[in-house]
Design a protein that fits this description.
globular; eight-stranded parallel sheet; 12 strands; TIM Barrel; binds flavin mononucleotide; two-stranded antiparallel sheet; 32% helix; 11 helices
Length: 395
């Protein structure tokens, strides 16, 4: 079936151009942020320039892999940072390669908080978080040590109230560095059980200061980060990612919808205060957690959940999680999102946009090479359409 047949006349589809604030997108197939663990000494290199430029299209939107805003932020091996001059210089070459293809490129700022191990921390310190509770044992298989083996998440240290402005400052500085590196904007990673989510979720945040307890207090850290980053680089270059209904690494909340709406209400208010919209809000659907945990999800409940958040947010809304060509078209037609981000399918199909356009067969992805260090295998060697199709059977 031709992709055009998947949408009704008059409704937007993945190939309808979209104006995202100051950015003119020529289609709505976004590269989701994807940690690939290929940086050398936390610095991206030529392989990254090739990897991202392979996935770049004129007027496309790419979001970088999670990138550390400070030296306490990492919890996976070989993750790039954007807090030293050397890192900024290295990113410039990657960004240039993407811009040469005409894409817009946002840097995802990612602090893992307690989802770390003391080997990743300066002086072997405890990772920082909103809490001193350790992530429960059932999630330990998600922790990769520098040699690629699994370990146990370390017990974190709860940030003192007076330390929080310093962490906010790291995001602000990293955003400035991102712009200096040439990125068009930043995405603040507030999802998937990492630092900001550790403040947002009442299943984790057990603080009694102004950053814990009420919704107002739990949202405070995120909102302070957004305000600081906007003050540095302007609202139109700033975006936020959340996943209120995703319970990765114990990131549960007693009222996921209420939490999502509370964040959105505050972002809407900030936009009024700034007199400008943020670039976008990016929400991950629980379907993504089901992929990690092999759990179940209810498609109807999820679609309603995402639509409620979409309708509440006053700006560009990106949805992510388990989208195919058909589901993406359907979601856009139903008004569940303005843009769709693709993760795993974009790993294995550098020319995903073209393949979607032609409704061509897709390469399957090989999960085993998602996070390996090899600069080529599973990173830049997935074939383009004119090179054939690979069929890595999903385990
Ligand atoms: C290998 C891999 C790495 C990921 N890394 C990140 C990341 O760095 N930051 C982030 O916000 N999400 C990350 N995600 C989640 C993706 O951005 C995306 O939301 C998720 O894969 C669901 O989309 P998909 O079903 O199209 O793959 C990652 C997912 C995968 C599979």
């Amino acid at each position: 079936m031709a992709p055009e047949a998947l949408v009704q006349a008059g409704t937007p589809d993945l190939f309808t151009p979209y104006k995202m604030g100051k950015f003119n997108l020529s289609h709505r197939v976004v590269l989701a942020p994807l940690t690939r663990c290929r940086a050398v000494n936390e610095i991206p290199f030529e392989a990254h320039a090739l990897y991202y430029s392979q996935r770049a299209t004129p007027g496309g939107l790419l979001i970088s892999e999670g990138t550390s805003p400070s030296n306490t932020a990492a919890g996976y091996p070989h993750v790039p940072g954007i807090y030293t001059e050397e890192q900024v210089e290295a990113w410039k070459k990657v960004v240039d390669a993407v811009h040469a293809k005409g894409s817009i490129f946002f840097c995802q700022l990612w602090h893992v908080g307690r989802a770390s191990h003391h080997v990743y921390q300066p002086n072997g310190d405890s990772p920082i978080s909103s809490t001193k509770k350790r992530i429960s044992d059932k999630w330990d298989p998600l922790l990769a040590l520098p040699d690629g083996s699994n370990g146990k998440f370390s017990k974190p240290r709860a940030l003192e109230t007076y330390e929080i402005p310093q962490v906010v400052e790291h995001y602000r500085q990293a955003a400035l560095n991102s712009i200096r590196a040439g990125f068009d904007g930043v995405e603040i990673h507030g999802a998937h059980g990492y630092l900001i989510d550790q403040f947002l979720k009442d299943g984790i945040n057990d603080r009694t200061d102004k950053y814990g307890g009420s919704l107002e207090n739990r949202c405070r850290f995120l909102i302070e980060v957004v305000e600081a980053v906007v003050s540095a680089i302007g609202a139109e270059r700033v975006s936020v990612r959340i996943s209120p209904a995703i319970d990765l690494m114990d990131a549960t909340d007693s009222d996921p919808l209420g939490l999502g709406l509370a964040v959105i209400e505050r972002l809407n208010k900030l936009q009024l205060k700034f007199g400008s919209k943020l670039a976008y809000l990016h929400v991950t659907r629980p379907r993504f957690a089901a992929f990690v945990t092999k759990g179940n999800y209810d498609e109807v409940v999820e679609a309603k959940f995402i639509k409620t958040l979409r309708d509440a947010y006053d700006g560009t809304f990106i949805a992510s999680g388990g989208y195919t060509l058909e589901l993406g078209q359907k979601s856009l037609a139903n008004g569940e999102a303005d843009l769709i981000s693709y993760g795993r399918l974009f790993i294995s199909n550098p020319d995903l946009v073209l393949r979607f356009k032609l409704n061509a067969p897709l390469n399957n992805y090989d999960r085993k090479t998602f996070y390996t260090k090899d600069p080529v295998v599973g990173f830049t060697d997935y074939p383009f359409l004119n090179q054939g199709v690979v069929d890595n059977k999903e385990e």
